[in-house]
Amino acid sequence: MPRETPQGGTFPPAMMPGTEEFFVVGGGGDPSMVLLPGWATDGRIFEGVFPGVPAVTTGALRPEGFTLRLAAFLDRTARGPVTVVGWSLGGFLAAEFAREYPDRVRRLVLVSIRREYPEGDIAEALRSLSADPGACLSAFYARCFYPSQMPAYRRFRGGLQAAYLREVDGGALREGLSYLAGARLSGETLPACPVAIVHGEKDVVAPFAEAEGVAREGGNATFHPLPGASHAAFLADGFRALIADGQGWPGAATGREASGSNGAADG
Question: Residues near 78 by Cβ (< 8 Å), separated by ≥ 6?
Fold first, then answer.
């Protein structure tokens, strides 16, 4: 049975996550991007973000051994280095992959990241997940869009959220939280490739100042604030143009140093 996209459409069977860990979406040709989703989501969350761009994405993230499995998949599907986009939990894994496989990554884009998640936040998420998975996830999804991306939230809630709540994988969710409990990002842990750090100015999940601080510490990093965007900043107006770098995406942006502002459109 086809599965819902964030816009309420469906993925054709060949693009359905769940049967295989990784799959290719977008136009024909060799993938030029890897799209790594956040906790409690999968590659379907990126539907429509990069139309026509062939990209590798994934089902629900299983962090243990992830980078090795991704490298093996890229061996079969991509001819050269790719741009890796990682959102939230996916940002930690994207940075880890770029450090471990530098020859495979041309550029890294980290969206809505933070230095680390406090122990108390992880413990509370585990308690909530155990008590009522549906309520836990519904509250988390709302926070990803609150307070400023409510039209996008309504589309998500009317389509993909229902699918996620039906398909809850408690093992993957707990593995993701366990990984986040020990995950760390700083200027020292950023890879050697060019890094763009994108963050919504109204993010209530990952503090804006933490992401900016990581970018300041990284000598090869640029910081891209998105005015008006929340945690799901990659769905905000202006995101695609902001990170475009000559791969055929609409628009272009060079970014600024960590202290700058780029004038991106409000989400």
Answer: 30, 31, 32, 56, 104
Q: What is the pLDDT of residue 252?
A: 31
14 vs 23: CA distance, rounded Å: 8
The more confidently predicted of residues 76 and 248 is 76
Residue 165, CB-side half-sphere exposure with 13 Å CA sphere: 17
DSSP 8-state secondary structure symbol assigned to residue 198: E
Alpha helices in 150-227 (DSSP H): 150-158, 160-166, 170-182, 208-217
Q: Which two tokens stand for residue 261?
A: 């502002």
pLDDT at 19: 61
Q: Tell me the mean pLDDT in the region 237-263.
A: 51
Decide: helix, strand or coil at residue 140.
helix
Q: What are the angstrom distances between the C-alpha of 128 and each of 81, 131, 194?
A: 40, 5, 38
Write the pLDDT tens digit of every residue in 181-234. Answer: 999 999 999 999 999 999 999 999 999 999 999 999 988 999 999 999 999 999
**May I ask the CATH class of domain 3-243?**
alpha beta
Three-state secondary structure string covering 112-124: CCCCCCCHHHHHH
- Strands 33-36, 82-87: pairing is parallel
Cβ atoms of residues 97 and 71 within 8 Å: yes
Q: Which pTM value belongs to this model?
A: 0.87
